[in-house]
Design a protein that fits this description.
single chain, Beta-Lactamase, 824 residues, 6 domains, alpha+beta, 26% strand, 48% helix, five-stranded antiparallel sheet, elongated, 25 helices
Length: 824
């Protein structure tokens, strides 16, 4: 069954209409011309689809002389509803006219003007029910006959006593009494014969029906079970009479039904109940029971006659319908209905949750729309009314949080199956917020890159052109990375799993083919490790052990050599341990992907970035030298305008130098060529140098160095200096001129903790968690130009010193960046 409900087409609706179990037909006109009839109605009539378009008398000639055609005429002319129960109708089935019994309804369907447009004809064949009820009534009649017989016997006994007491009178009237006695004997014989015949008829009917019929005495003990009971339970009459049916009741129903039965027995009243009973096929059947009390003529209680019908199919249908409703209610899609004015008639729980509503009563579709988008939404709604369907991306909102969310609004008509008139508007829409945010992020990145281009263009045309080319290549490489990621996600992957107890490996054909293991050969741990490049076996073994012992997710990239071809490939394996309810491991499984192309692209990209950045340094150094010479000349010539312009050019050259150095460091870092050259130095001296360098280029802030940084550390002085300079420079960029920047230190557990605190714009939690990722940039009104590599490089340098780096911040309250490195 689909997890996304959709509106059926007219052909599908007619097909569903034809398959509905309730016999249904649609008629028009006084002669009840048949407009449509489903399969159930055609089966009742004993006809096929050729009757469509004919009047009722023409289609069913045997109805002539019966009241039904006249009923249709009244319903059409007077707009009535005529119904009946247990109504007899003579129908010709297979060439033979037979009498059937129906519960039926003829209902006039009217338009808005009150005119009858068609007659909805529904019918249920209750012949079997009617005959069963007739059998039950005959059984009750038999019981009454038995009661009358007992009363007659009592009357005879009293008469005999009177005869003995008046023996003399009887002798005198012996002849008359003889005649009377003969008549009485004839009457008794006739009555007994009638009772025997009645009992025989009852048994014949009870044995011929598929209704479960049983008779019990006044003590609740069974006296009779028909063959339907014995066939269902596979138990004999004797077993059932000895209460041998109670243990077959479902444990959840047994005590409740027995209590109903015993309570009715005590009160001598009619009872009904539903229960499940175990059949001979091993399945439970649902039965609906009804028990009627029996009484003698003098009112004495004789017990019960009970009848049960099998309602298993009905119960299963109810369960399927409940499951379907649950599926619709559980859908994550935004599903709703409204009238043609936009008044909401239904919203599923997912829609209610997204909107933050407690009820949709007295709500309109415009209430769902984010206030800023309602003018657009009104135009869309008019288009929907005009065309019958629309599809637009628009913002709805949560009234509780006042946060908007994007949906792909798909609206369409729902039409009446008979008149084809539009009766409602429906929407089945998906939440596309994440996709829209991703698009906005891409747009912001493009805007940032454009801003960077403008800043760099102030240097010179050659440098600007080179910068533009570099950005273009970076964008192409990023796009290549994204396409490669999508290709990996959609192909070149397989699955694997490991039994945590036996360490038995199950691998898909793709995994085996990549490793060089035959498809029909088991993928043992020894085989897998044999295919892994020796440099990565220790890392992979440690990762697998950690995952199996600590149940932590794993993600590893490593080299393998195909055991058959010897071909070298890069692969990526991700996995996690799945636990049962008690927390015990069930399976360690995940994905296995061939990332050789991506790895090669990354290496080529890093080589390219390194090459381009290195080539840019030579002309940039020359430009810097020319600018410095021109600055000195401007000062000697006391040319304030030229000096100011050259200062700006020098500032742009410094920015470009920083950016190129960053790209070079990223390239070296990812190529494994960046070296950590450690030496012993005083941290406070390095901090002072970094602060002084900042004052040379930016003297707009008050930078305060605490006196607790007098400590010697063993680290790479230049690279730690780059980290400090980057953090202080960021504090300048993202805080107001004249604000304070505090630099402090602390020593704890053999590590020195450096903190750089500003009074700037702050960072939200989501951005703080991603701040040290490569090329990540915070989006907002205060975004400063850059490429998002400074903090990434800083973090990698700290990690290579076995240290940590993090940030603590609140929006509009400033930020504090921390890093730690071991003292020794």
């Amino acid at each position: 069954m689909s997890k996304s409900p959709h509106l059926l087409s007219n052909e599908q609706l007619i097909e569903v209409f034809n398959l509905t179990p309730t016999a249904t037909a649609i008629h028009v006109g006084e002669t009840a011309v048949i407009q449509n009839a489903n399969n159930a109605m055609l089966e009742i009539w004993g006809k096929d689809k050729s009757v469509i378009g004919k009047s009722l008398e023409e289609a069913l000639p045997e109805l002539k002389g019966q009241p039904f055609v006249e009923m249709f005429r009244r319903v059409w002319n007077e707009g009535l509803i005529i119904s009946g129960k247990d109504t007899a109708a003579d129908l010709e089935i297979a060439g033979k006219v037979q009498t059937f019994y129906f519960d039926f309804e003829y209902r006039a369907i009217k338009n808005d003007a009150g005119e009858t447009i068609c007659i909805l004809h529904t019918a249920v064949d209750v012949t079997e029910r009617f005959l069963k009820q007739e059998a039950i009534e005959m059984a009750q009649e038999k019981a009454l006959a038995l009661q009358r017989e007992q009363a007659l016997n009592e009357e005879l006994a009293a008469t005999n006593e009177e005869l003995v007491a008046t023996n003399e009178e009887l002798q005198e009237t012996q002849e008359a009494l003889s005649v009377l006695n003969s008549e009485l004997e004839d009457r008794v014989e006739t009555r007994v014969k009638e009772l025997m015949e009645s009992e025989e008829r009852f048994k014949n009917m009870a044995e011929a029906t598929d209704i479960f019929i049983a008779v019990g005495d006044e003590q609740g003990n069974g006296t009779y079970f028909n063959s339907t009971w014995t066939e269902l339970t596979a138990r004999s009459m004797q077993d059932l009479l000895a209460f041998g049916w109670a243990d077959l009741l479902h444990p959840d129903d047994r005590q409740n039904y027995i209590n109903i039965y015993l309570s009715a027995l005590e009160s001598q009243k009619e009872f009904t109940g539903e229960f499940r009973i175990l059949a001979k096929d091993g399945n439970y059947h649902w039965l609906l029971a009804k028990g009627s009390p029996r009484f003698r003529a003098d009112g004495a209680f004789l017990g019960y006659i009970s009848s049960c019908i099998d309602i298993t199919d009905r119960k299963l249908y109810e369960l399927e319908r409940q499951n379907l409703n649950s599926l619709i209610e559980a859908s994550a899609e935004f599903i709703g209905l409204s009238d043609l004015k936009g008044n909401i008639e239904y919203l599923n729980p997912s829609a209610m949750s997204k909107l933050g509503w407690a009820t949709y009563n007295n709500r309109t579709m415009m209430d769902c729309v984010y206030p800023e988008d309602r003018t657009q939404a009104e135009n869309i709604f008019e288009e929907l009314i005009s065309k019958g369907n629309v599809s637009y991306e628009i913002r709805f909102w949560n009234e509780q949080t006042e946060i908007p969310f994007w949906i792909d609004w798909n609206g369409f008509f729902i039409k009446d199956a008979l008149s084809n008139e539009v009766i409602a508007l429906a929407t089945v829409s998906s939440d596309i917020t994440e996709r829209k945010l991703y698009q906005e992020e891409l747009q912001a990145i493009n805007e940032d890159l454009a801003l960077s281009n403008e800043e760099l263009a102030t240097t010179n045309e050659e440098l600007a052109q080179t910068h533009d080319d570099l950005i273009q290549y970076i964008n192409k490489l990023s796009e290549s990375d994204e396409k490669l990621r999508q290709a990996i996600d959609t192909g070149k992957m397989g699955t694997w799993s490991i039994n945590p107890v036996t360490i038995e490996i199950t691998a898909s054909p793709f995994v085996k083919e990549t490793l060089g293991i035959a498809i029909d050969e088991p993928a043992t741990m020894e085989k897998v490790m044999e295919a892994v490049n020796p440099k990565y076996r220790g890392m992979l073994t440690e990762a697998l052990t950690n995952a199996l012992e600590n149940y932590t997710p794993s993600e590893n990239e490593y080299l393998i050599n195909n055991l058959i071809t010897g071909e070298e490939k890069w692969v990526r394996a991700t996995g996690r341990v799945f636990l049962d309810k008690e927390g015990n491991p069930l399976e360690y499984s995940g994905l296995f992907m061939d990332i050789t192309e991506r790895k090669l692209d990354e290496l080529r990209k890093n080589d390219f970035i390194g090459m381009v950045s290195h080539e840019l340094k030579t002309p940039l150094t020359a430009i810097n030298g020319f600018v410095q010479v021109l600055q000195r000349k401007a000062k000697l010539a006391d040319d304030a305008y030229a000096a100011n312009a050259l200062d700006k050019a020098a500032n742009q050259v410094r920015k470009m130098t920083t950016m190129i150095n960053g790209f070079l460091n990223v390239s070296r870092l990812e190529s494994g060529k960046i070296l950590i050259e450690k030496s012993t130095f005083k941290l406070d001296e390095l901090l002072k140098e970094a602060i002084d360098e900042t004052y040379i280029s930016q003297s707009t802030h008050l930078v305060n160095l605490a006196n607790n940084c007098d400590v010697e550390v063993f680290a790479d002085r230049d690279k730690i200096g780059n980290v400090i300079s980057n953090l202080i420079s960021n504090a300048h960029k993202y805080s107001a001129n004249g604000s304070r920047i505090d630099v402090s230190c602390a020593i704890k557990n053999g590590e020195v903790i450096v903190a750089i605190k500003d009074e700037g714009i702050g960072i939200n939690t989501d951005d703080a968690n991603k701040l040290f990722e490569r090329y990540y940039r915070v989006k907002g009104n205060h975004t400063i130009s850059g490429f998002g590599i400074g903090l990434y490089l800083s973090a990698e340098i700290i990690y290579r010193h076995n240290g940590k780096i993090w940030v603590e911040s609140e929006l509009d309250k400033g930020s504090t960046f921390y890093f730690t490195i071991p003292i020794n």
